[in-house]
Write a structure and sequence with these properties.
Blueprint (H helix, E strand, L loop, with lengths): L6 H9 L8 H19 L7 E8 L8 E8 L8 E5 L13 H11 L2 E5 L2
Parallel strand pairs: 3-4
Antiparallel strand pairs: 1-2, 2-4
Length: 119
């Protein structure tokens, strides 16, 4: 039985490369290359009212620091909501760039300080 999807979602799903999740390094490479190619063709999403700030935070004891990216609405003048995003990808793929559009949209459309966490 063929599953029926929204036509836009189906196009995106068909464009996404097959990933062998049993090969962690290979899966990461495939996803990173796909995202890089997508950004080259469409441009990296930007928003002139959102400031992006790169930082690191301490990792667990004995582990290296974790990179994070803050997306801060420039017109924000008081405390408000925050969105912390730990990317999906079966905990083997995904990074700050794969989640960039989502984090940017949460800050731009939701008015939240958005935090992308790389691990």
């Amino acid at each position: 039985m063929k599953r029926v999807y929204d036509p836009t979602i189906e196009k995106v799903a068909q464009a996404f490369p097959r990933v062998d999740v049993t090969d962690v390094l290979g899966a990461r490479k495939v996803v990173a290359e796909f995202c890089e190619a997508l950004q080259k063709s469409t441009g990296r999403p930007r928003h002139d009212q959102i400031e992006e700030v790169e930082k690191t935070i301490p990792g667990p004891k004995g582990a290296p620091p974790l990179p994070i990216r803050l997306y801060v609405p420039k017109d924000r003048t008081e405390a408000g909501p925050a969105f912390v995003n730990f990317h999906g990808g079966a905990f083997i793929m995904g990074d700050l760039e794969t989640e960039h559009p989502r984090c940017l949209a949460m800050a731009a459309e939701g008015g939240a300080v958005s935090v992308g966490v790389d691990y």
